[in-house]
């Protein structure tokens, strides 16, 4: 029972740590954290869309975050590295946070759902499913599922190529939960991938170059930042990104507007 209790305790602490990071570095587009123990301490890899916001001016943000992880969560000598996400629109965590922010701003839930599905599919996803539940319209709870593309629901393929995440947001109507599942083409097993005919002229695919850069801060602390060249993020923060999307989202017609136009 002691081993089981330790596993439960570790999982619970990881859940609290993820919730803290999701809220603390929300504006940096937090996706997920990878934690591993080393002889020198605990290595924490943060996957975000904008590493500069996490580091802060002269490393003030990363220094404060390191102290918090050591004191509040009991991580021994945490060594933080920041990894920039290559395709934020294919990260369920990032898209859940963005959709939750839109709902918090008062955007209609169907409009936010259709916009999120559109962004994910245009980024090259094989399929997506968005489930939204809670106080959507009135006092009674309800849920809706929206899907696009091909998304395996069960079996080995669903475990391999499908990523998912859940986010909750408190609105004026009540608590709303958002669950996003994304099927990624790059994770397909080679034996089951479709073989296309070889054309006479082969197209050369240019992959983005990853640059590893070390940012030195006062003292012995070093932060490793992995940057991806050719990123399409023009907004400086997630707040700006959400504000830009909110303006573009107004062009999407919801089912209610389509029904009104038919009358």
Structure description:
The protein is an alpha+beta fold. The chain folds into two domains: 2-86 and 211-239, K homology (KH) domain (GMP Synthetase, Chain A, domain 3, 2-Layer Sandwich); 90-195, Ribosomal protein S3 C-terminal domain (2-Layer Sandwich). The protein contains eight helices and nine strands. A five-stranded mixed sheet has the order 1-2-3-9-8. Strands 5-4-7-6 form a four-stranded antiparallel sheet. It starts with a helix and ends with a helix. Mean pLDDT is 78; it is low at 200-204 and 228-232.
Shape: globular
Order of helices and strands: HEEHHEHHEEHEEEEHH
Report the sheet-strand fraction: 25-35%
Q: pLDDT under 50 segments (min length 5)? A: 200-204, 228-232
Rg is: 21 Å
Main sheet? Answer: 5 strands, mixed
Q: What is the structure about, briefly put?
A:
The chain is α+β, with helices and mostly antiparallel strands and 263 residues long. It folds into two domains: 114 residues, 2-Layer Sandwich (GMP Synthetase, Chain A, domain 3); 106 residues, Ribosomal protein S3, C-terminal domain (Ribosomal protein S3 C-terminal domain, 2-Layer Sandwich), CATH 3.30.1140.32.
């Amino acid at each position: 029972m002691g081993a089981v209790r330790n596993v439960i305790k570790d999982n619970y602490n990881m859940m609290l740590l993820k919730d803290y990071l999701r809220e603390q570095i929300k504006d940096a587009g937090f996706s997920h954290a990878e934690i591993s123990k080393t002889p020198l301490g605990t290595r924490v890899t943060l996957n975000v869309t904008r590493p500069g916001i996490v580091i802060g001016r002269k490393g003030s943000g990363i220094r404060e975050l390191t102290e918090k992880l050591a004191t509040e969560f009991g991580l021994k000598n945490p060594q933080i590295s920041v990894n920039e996400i290559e395709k934020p629109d294919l990260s369920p965590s990032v898209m859940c946070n963005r959709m939750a922010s839109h709902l918090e701003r008062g955007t209609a839930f169907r409009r936010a759902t259709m916009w999120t599905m559109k962004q994910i599919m245009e980024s090259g996803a094989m399929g997506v499913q968005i489930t939204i539940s809670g106080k959507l319209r009135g006092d009674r709870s309800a849920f809706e599922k929206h899907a696009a593309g091909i998304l395996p629901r069960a079996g080995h393929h669903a475990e391999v190529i499908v990523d998912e995440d859940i986010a909750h947001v408190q609105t004026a109507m009540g608590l709303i939960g958002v669950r996003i599942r994304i099927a990624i083409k790059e994770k397909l097993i080679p034996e089951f991938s479709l073989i296309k005919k070889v054309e006479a002229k082969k197209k050369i695919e240019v992959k983005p170059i990853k640059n590893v850069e070390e940012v030195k801060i006062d003292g012995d602390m070093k932060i490793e930042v992995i940057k991806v060249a050719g990123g399409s993020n023009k907004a400086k923060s997630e707040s700006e990104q959400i504000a830009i999307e909110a303006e573009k989202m107004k062009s999407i017609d919801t089912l209610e507007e389509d029904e009104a136009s038919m009358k």
